[in-house]
């Protein structure tokens, strides 16, 4: 690993001394697979169509525990030598009586840079926050201190990011909620409450390390995120074994002050499947961890090849 790569990894690792607090953005153990949720530039690595779904069930055993579902797709666009890429993502997160929904559109442009290339990405979308009062139980019926009907607020959301790739190594930097969005509740009841959402900064890096045995690889990755109030860092390492059209991997992720996670999964042809169990290092106990499921499908889409039956519609695959 050269000096530049070492410097980036050291920069991210220095973040481990920061204090950990609550976060607004949903967290996924498989952050590498859902990276364009946080960074719109994390697309078009190999000009293939990429469809990813992930389900995160946090704090198992607790009532009203967070459950987050994500599905996203992105691909290179068929003009200007595939330098342009676009993607769309849907996120649904429930935490107690609150529901957070996001519709996200990403665009990125690829430029050559030395022996590598860089993506410059922008993100735009809509965020909806909902409070469901039907599950609220109070000592006094129709207590005016609490909303008596469903409250919902919708606001636009903006983000931007960069991704630099050189060979088997990459580094990314991005920011979400750059427009400082805020959602207002209680307009229907006359008592308005405002929820302010601060921008969140992300720094990611990772690589593929080939071993003497060509069937084996080690894949370290790091993600640090902060809104200058909370801070979280995830350090992940996977070891993979590939044979023919199949690949199997095991791995672990460590988030200082928060959790340790075990990962297990595999790939057959174009489908990658993964499962992770996160154990919190606090007082929750190892049985009250978080379950993460991930499925990724990738396929070649040759927009320029001529002739009949070049490729099938995604709907029929």
What distance separates the N and C termini?
A: 40 Å
Q: Largest sheet at a glance?
A: 14 strands, antiparallel, barrel
Principal-axes shape call: globular
Which structural class do the helices and strands define?
mainly beta
Please, how many domains?
1
Count of runs of 4 or more consecutive helical residues: 2
Major beta sheet, strand line-up: 1-2-3-4-5-6-7-10-12-13-14-15-16-17
Helix content: under 10%
Number of strands: 17
Mean pLDDT: 83
Give the SSE string. Answer: HHEEEEEEEEEEEEEEEEE
Second-tier CATH architecture: Beta Barrel
Report the top-level CATH class.
Mainly Beta
Poorly predicted regions: 3-22, 307-317
Rg, please?
21 Å
**CATH H-level name... which superfamily?**
monomeric porin ompg
Percentage beta strand:
over 45%
Would you give the CATH topology? Porin
Tell me what the structure shows.
By secondary structure, the chain is mostly beta strands. The protein has a single domain, classed as monomeric porin ompg (Porin), CATH 2.40.160. It is built from 2 helices and 17 strands. The protein has a 14-stranded antiparallel barrel with strand order 1-2-3-4-5-6-7-10-12-13-14-15-16-17. It has a two-stranded antiparallel sheet with strand order 8-9. Strand 4 and strand 5 form a beta hairpin. It is globular, with a radius of gyration of 21 Å.
Summarize the model shown.
This protein has 317 residues and is mostly beta strands.
Overview features:
single chain; mainly beta; 317 residues; disordered N terminus; disordered C terminus; globular; 14-stranded antiparallel barrel; 54% strand; 2 helices; Porin; 5% helix; two-stranded antiparallel ribbon
